[in-house]
Amino acid sequence: MSSKRIAVIGTGYVGLVSGACFAYLGHKVIGLDIDEKKIELLRKGEVPIYEPGLDRILRRALERGNIEFTTDYEYAVKNSDFIFIAVGTPSKEDGSADLSYVESAYKSIAEYIGNEDFKIIVNKSTVPVGTGRWAKEFIKSLLEKRGIKNPEERFEIVSNPEFLREGKAVEDFMKPDRVVVGADNRDIAGMVASLYEKLQPAMLITDLPTAEMIKYASNSFLATKISFINEIANICEKLGADVTVVARGMGLDHRISPYFLNAGCGFGGSCFPKDVKALIHTAKSVGEEPKLLSSVMKVNEKQKLRPIEKLLKHIPELKDKTIAVWGLAFKPETDDMREAPSIPLVRKLLSLGAKVKAYDPVAMENAKKVFKEEIKTFGEKLLFVDDKYEALEGADALILITEWNEFKEVEFDKLKGKVIIDGRNIWEPSVMRQFCVYESIGRV
Ligand code: UGA
């Protein structure tokens, strides 16, 4: 495989993982970010996010001289042939995707494309369907303004959506289920596809809007699976069925597959909620009424508070009761708190007058930022403690929200006599009920 020159705009988890992995594969990568402090850290091989395996890959790439970091757009654009955009596309108030970071990346890139250049601009950021074609016109007009001749011949836009899970991002990059590349020009799409050659992935080459849609449809489908199994779980509880076994039985059918059928207290993170909302917004903008997708979100909002409904069955008055909370991150193996089910859940406990003692193995610092206002307002009623057992001291009940491994191996003695709400079905009901009041999701 020949080594290619790649710039990656944005060193968040998608940009950094993609950049470091491309460099690890032998390409020459320039990582760009406007945040100078971050760039300083990265030059030293320090990873500013919690992502297992990433520090090792990054250091190896730095040692081999395959990756460098800069804040200088001119340098990045002039010294690369492929420019990947991996900046955030957060949700706006109305659910639509905020494209301001993507737009400003296009503008900065367009400033440095010269008369003799040909740059392949690849969107890794999740952008609404249609953005690629719009970007073509946008960049063309920027180049025209600069007096660049035949501007449409100076660049091509490609969509190459990412399917990386936080916490497993390096593994997902190195062993992808598939690589999707969409472009109006198939040869150019093929050139982007060849960057992944060494990984020998299943490859799908499409047009631009189709590639963009594959990303939204995939995330929305996974979110739908979760809301579906959560709804089934709630019905199971009323009928005496066990949702974990139901999911296993369903998953044995290869048309269904066993993945993303774990019932719990809802999905969070920076992707599913944002992408489902954005797809709903896009659908409405073209006159569609996506009822299923809207229900996926509604079921999820309700499910996040399901553990509290269960708690109230056993402790109807939470005023001045102490509730331990285990797990704050939106899922294990990450310190990410974005859209975490713990956020509405802790807020609701506080509003019901409970005292909360919360613990997470890695997300404590981020959690303190998220709950900044509550820390001020509720003072001693919201405590962040350094150890899972410390959270249990004096607690009347425990709610488990995130299924970190360290919670699975617990000294059961410490849970004795408490009300335990297991929001992720990590313990065995028959074992737990021997020494505590135990509730889980979709199991009686
Ligand atoms: C998700 C997708 O899985 C990735 O393929 C995609 O690339 C990424 O979004 C993205 O768009 O960037 P991620 O948000 O890291 O990845 O997290 P997941 O592992 O998918 O979990 C999302 C949420 O669903 C978590 O809150 C998790 O607890 C919940 N979940 C997951 C369930 O409640 N049940 C399940 O069976 C699986």
Automatic annotation (TrEMBL):
SMART domains: UDPG_MGDP_dh_C (SM00984). Its EC number is 1.1.1.22. Keywords: NAD, Oxidoreductase. PROSITE patterns: PROKAR_LIPOPROTEIN. Substrate binds at F163, L164, R165, E166, K215, F260, L261, N262, A263, G264, G268, K331. Residues 324-429 form the UDP-glucose/GDP-mannose dehydrogenase C-terminal domain. The keyword NAD applies. Pathway: Nucleotide-sugar biosynthesis; UDP-alpha-D-glucuronate biosynthesis; UDP-alpha-D-glucuronate from UDP-alpha-D-glucose: step 1/1. One of its GO terms (biological process) is polysaccharide biosynthetic process. It comes from the Bacteria. It catalyses: UDP-alpha-D-glucose + 2 NAD(+) + H2O = UDP-alpha-D-glucuronate + 2 NADH + 3 H(+). NAD(+) binds at D33, K38, T89, T126, E166, K274, R338. One of its GO terms (molecular function) is NAD binding. SUPFAM superfamilies: 6-phosphogluconate dehydrogenase C-terminal domain-like, NAD(P)-binding Rossmann-fold domains, UDP-glucose/GDP-mannose dehydrogenase C-terminal domain. Belongs to the UDP-glucose/GDP-mannose dehydrogenase family. This is UDP-glucose 6-dehydrogenase. It comes from Desulfurobacterium thermolithotrophum (strain DSM 11699 / BSA).
